[in-house]
Amino acid sequence: MVPASVRSALQVLLGSALALAAAGGVAAAPNCPRAPAPAALLERFTPADCEACWQAPQDPPASQARRVMVLDWIVPAADGAPLAAAALPEASERAGGLAANQTLLRQTPLARAGALRLRIADGPAWNGYIGLQLTVRRVGKLPADAVAYAALVERVPAGSEGTPVARQLVRALVGPLSLQELVAQTTIHHLRAVRIPEGSRGDRLGSVAWVADANGKVIAATQSPTSECAAP
After folding, report:
1. This model's pTM is above 0.90
2. Do the beta carbons of residue 13 and residue 131 sit within 8 Å?
3. Mind listing the pLDDT tens digit for each residue in 200-232?
4. Looking at the DSSP assignment, which residues form a beta bridge with residue 187?
5. What is the 8-class DSSP label of residue 26?
6. Around Cβ 92, how many Cβ atoms within 10 Å?
7. Which of 70, 75, 20, 17 is nearest to 45 (CA)?
8. What are phi and psi for residue 130, nearest 5 degrees?
9. Cis peptide leading into 232, omega within 30 of 0?
10. Cα–Cα dist 79/23, whole Å
11. Angle ∠(188,174,208) on CA atoms, nearest 5
12. What are the E-state strand segments in the chain?
């Protein structure tokens, strides 16, 4: 349970940071225009007891790489597994089953002109927590019973931590978040405080968000800018 004082403080800090950026008070990376919505989501589910899976190259084809948002999940295994420190219980449910010693790859096409527009922002860190703010705007008919998720991710560069490919590793998950308010209004905001995972590197943290329909299929996704893009 996140203490109310932490949640309130992060709301003020994150709100101020977003307002300052919008007003131009923060260097907004003029060479980094807002990225278009991804055309597909590629999820890689790696068993925590398969270090060789983590060390295997699994990038999307070069022709698709710029249009694909990649998420990495570590699925819990036996205690003491090599990758257990980064495993999430939610990854097991999302994977829906894994073959032994094998990474499960799941690619989902996303609508180019869907009914929703997403924006995710994160930070600053405070007292061991980081704020995530998800904005969802309805521009068409809202899918029935759709829900949103926000995740804190660690962006692991290729050649680091034993991986030959860049990874966007899910370290904490928030959701499902209700979108019912979009029936009566066009825009809603969800703000959550997330504990910074032990062992993660603050300079690599970012955020992603997605919306899934009633069957769990992802229909829209977005991510916060990379540190390189956001840097002054």
Report:
1. no
2. yes
3. 999 999 999 999 999 999 999 999 986 555 443
4. 137
5. S
6. 17
7. 75
8. -135, 140
9. no
10. 49
11. 75
12. 40-47, 68-75, 104-109, 116-126, 129-138, 147-156, 167-178, 187-195, 205-212, 218-223
